[in-house]
Every structure is written in C-alpha cells, then in structure tokens.
Amino acid sequence: ETIDAIEVAYGDYQFNTVAQRIYDFVWSDYCDWFVEAAKTDIFGDDQLRKKAALATMDHVTSAVLRLLHPFMPHITEELWTLMGFAKNKNVFLDFVPLPARIDLGDEERAKTAQSRVRGIYALVEAGRNLRAEAGRRRRGFRMRVLLLAGC
Q1: pTM of the model
Q2: 6 Ramachandran zone, left/alpha/beta (phi>0; psi -120 to 50)
Q3: Which of 101, 107, 95, 105 minimizes the C-alpha distance to 59?
C-alpha cells in the first residue's frame, strides 16, 4: 500500500507526498508498531522468532533506504553499504530496484487481516491516550497540591 502510493507520487513528481508517506510509514507503522512489538521476539529465547523479526527488520530497512535514496543519495548509499545490503561493492544503490509489493496471496484474506490490525492499532491508541490523559490529570493534581502547600 505504501510502496504503491509512493511510486504513484514519484511518477507525478509529488515529492512532498513521497517524503510524507515515507515519514508516516517509518514513524507510525514501523517504529510505533512493528519495532515495539518485535522487541519481545528479538530479546526472547525463541531463536526462530528472533531470526524472523530481524529478517523482517532487514527487509523493511532495505526498502526504506531504497525509497529514500532519491532524496538523500549520499547517506542512503553509505548506510546501504555499512549495513551489509551491498553484496558487491561495484553495485550502487542507484541501480537497485525499488522494493516490490509483496503478494499476500488471497486478497480478501489480506483485507481482513488489515482490518483486524487497524482495529488493534485503534484499541492500543485509545489505551495510550487514556493513560496519557490520566497521567496529565495526576501531575496537574500534584502541582496544585504543591502550590497550595507553598512548596
């Protein structure tokens, strides 16, 4: 979904849209959700789950570097090499194709999974918002008590 939107935006020369979509994906989808969820697998005892999580992180990082390359060629090229994605020192990131859309097979099943994940995201976000609001109220209460006490 993100890659398709980015390719369309690149084709229409809407570079602000490209940058915003990459930013939204990296911070909102990848960091907020996947990386946070993967921590238990990465630091857990199950080596198979750890390898799967790290392989997914490699795949996503590789894709993000390829998508960012037109915006920041020097840093992405350096990261591409340092992170071990450059299998051959003579192959530059300029010549590596953009990431392809992953075919999940059954389209209806994929839509159902996306819907479920969005529901989970909404539930977790609601919980985070409630926790943040409760924390703000408590801190505000403490501040008023301290001010009234003359501290």
Answers
A1: 0.67
A2: alpha
A3: 101
